[in-house]
Design brief:
2 domains; 32% helix; five-stranded antiparallel beta sheet
Length: 267
């Protein structure tokens, strides 16, 4: 693998009782890029994410991170390597404050999350870093707000801050703008752009406007296989993509809003 690629899959296959969900996928994610994985429902996008982060085990094929074969690693080991993932559904603690959510993530990263015998005051040393992360996602003023009281877009921003607390080398974002209105989408686009500084991002995203604004490279999946790959101009002009993803008339109406598609959780 060339040094320019931080993450690669080789002939990746995932079968479920005879059904091929991921079919011979060869994916190369270049260091420093924002790379999108798009396609219609059932194309295999979330399954690929689950394979990369070891929530699923490949039937065949290899996954490499910085030239190291990580195919058999467990999910916790993957995170320690620097591959950190967000989920379609916000994964923050609803009855903790925004600051406390970040502090839990920092404790996990530092390996002190099970130091129950220590005074809670000892955790205050982490507060400065918590505030830096909250400020980075525009949530500094909500540091002491219980998460359940935050608007949906701010909850997703908080989730991004908790993933950044893990200091990822590559950040995997699963539908970061799902279910958001246009104002929240614009905010998240800017947050992802800021989060991408100095790191690599691989994202599943249905909102083609977001993809066009953010992504350096796009891989299109259809029926579990790679249909095509390129920059936004090349991919959006491909008649095969227009057919399977944006509709046969090429208008793109089915793929331009985050809430126009349902999640692939069934995968």
């Amino acid at each position: 693998m060339s040094e320019q690629y931080v993450l690669e899959t080789r002939n990746l296959v995932k079968e479920f009782k005879g059904f091929v969900a991921v079919d011979d996928v060869n994916l190369k994610v270049q260091k420093g890029h924002i790379h999108a994985l798009i396609g219609p429902n059932g194309a295999g996008k979330t399954t690929v994410f689950n394979l990369l982060t070891k929530f699923l085990i490949p039937t065949r094929g290899q996954i490499l991170f910085k030239d190291q074969d990580i195919t058999t690693m467990k999910s916790a080991a993957i995170a320690r390597q620097g591959i950190v993932r967000s989920f379609q559904i916000s994964a923050v603690f609803p009855h903790m404050t925004a600051l406390e959510n970040i502090r839990v993530a920092l404790q996990t990263f530092e390996g002190t999350s099970f130091s129950f015998w220590k005074s809670g005051n000892s955790l205050h040393k982490l507060n400065q870093r918590c505030m830096e992360l909250l400020d980075a996602v525009g949530l500094a003023e909500f540091a002491n707000t219980t998460t359940v009281e935050l608007a949906y877009g701010r909850k997703r921003a908080l989730e991004l801050a908790t993933t950044l607390a893990m200091e990822p080398e590559i950040l995997l974002l699963d539908e970061p703008t799902q279910g958001m209105g246009s104002e929240d989408v614009d905010r998240v686009v800017e947050l992802v752009r800021k989060a991408a500084a100095g790191r690599t991002v691989l994202m599943v995203e249905h909102n083609l406007s977001v993809v066009s604004k953010l992504c350096d490279r796009i891989t299109v999946l259809a029926q579990g296989a790679v249909l095509t790959e390129g920059d936004y101009a090349a991919v959006s002009a491909d008649p095969r993509v227009r057919e399977v993803y944006m509709g046969s008339d090429g208008s793109g109406e089915r793929g331009t809003t985050a809430d126009s598609e349902q999640s692939e959780a069934a995968q």
